[in-house]
Design a protein that fits this description.
single chain; alpha+beta; globular
Amino acid sequence: MNSFAAKTSSSSSIYGPKCHPIVGSGISFLANAHRLPQYFTDLIRESPTNTIQIRRPFVPISIVTANPANVEHILKTKFHNYPKGPNSHSVLYDLLGNGIFNADGETWKVQRKVASHEFNTRSLRKFVETAVKSEISGRLIPLFTSAAAGKTVLDLQDVLQRFAFDNICKVAFGSDPSCLDLNLPPSEFTSAFNLAVRLSSERFRVSSPMVWKIKAALGVGTERQLRDAIQVVDDYAINLICERRQNPISSPEDSDLLSRFMSSSAGDEEFLKDIIISFLLAGMDTTSAALTWFFWLVSNHKQVEEDVLKEISIIKAEAFGFDEAKEMHYLHAAICESMRLYPPVPTDGKFAAEDDVMPDGTVVPKGAKVIYAPYAMGRLESLWGKDWEEFRPERWLQKEGEGGNRRFVNEDPYKYPVFQAGPRVCLGKEMAFIEMHRCHRSPQL
């Protein structure tokens, strides 16, 4: 890896890819654009502080860190100084508007307060459990059973993405897109939403924001496709909201997120649309990615598979819920271990609102893009020991006394920021574990 260390006036060193006149590290960055998480990891390992800087033409400097002290500084200590930022907001605005995952400041605080209350209710947990159980027993298991009987090869990642999208649509606004029914063509909404997410993400990868902004202003190319896809998504969501206002759901046990937000806030259609689509995006690929990597890792580690099966055989599938999930220590450890190696969100970026200095001495100029990298953090010997490459759930377990049972022990969230940490910690963390636990727990799987 071509890296460099240049002395600064503060006598600290700056590490990152080799920087050339005018183009900076742009050539190296573009050459590795298809593998950025691993690219960052390789560079970070060469830095004594596990922090690097990347300079490219026409864009602010990027600071990438896998240092837990820096991560805590970004996500908690100086939380106010590291918002999503204007670039991220503008890139995702057409799709997410001012929804909770694209908002900062007071707009974010209002939505966070409402959402935090709802996500902590037992009735919502029960609603999630019921929706997931129905999807598994009604579609996922029959699909696998049929494929096994017919010796049909399935793309597990595709299947689990469909499974997760059906679940999050039911939980978010009570709609069932039936993606897991392979006999049905994708709905117009599903196709439009997937296209909108993909094209919005591509905006982050262009050489300059002006590229996509000019295309959007002219209404050409992928920006024209994005505009049309978002129109389909928005129309679908607005229609659902109007129907729900006319036919509200009164029972908390049967209430999806849309009904809950409608009853607990005075937001208009635009507010409700933005916050619901935000949760839809957050739950779409994250859970399916975690499930896919888990099954792949377990299939290659026979002893882990046997230990998981031994533990889950204790609890009846029909009785399995949120409370029972807490007692599945080895399964929970295996899930966390798989996300250590393959976090659903490998990197997450923030914006430096003011000049700052990280705990490791890294100088952060105002306007810099500041990235923390869970993928790289899970691959550092300094954090996880010499066996960091091994898929070993036991690293998350401790015995209770002599001959006692093994119990799961949480890691420092700033060493393992898979669900973020601090004020913006993932609200759906417990719901995601319910979905993953129940999916792994089903005996037919």
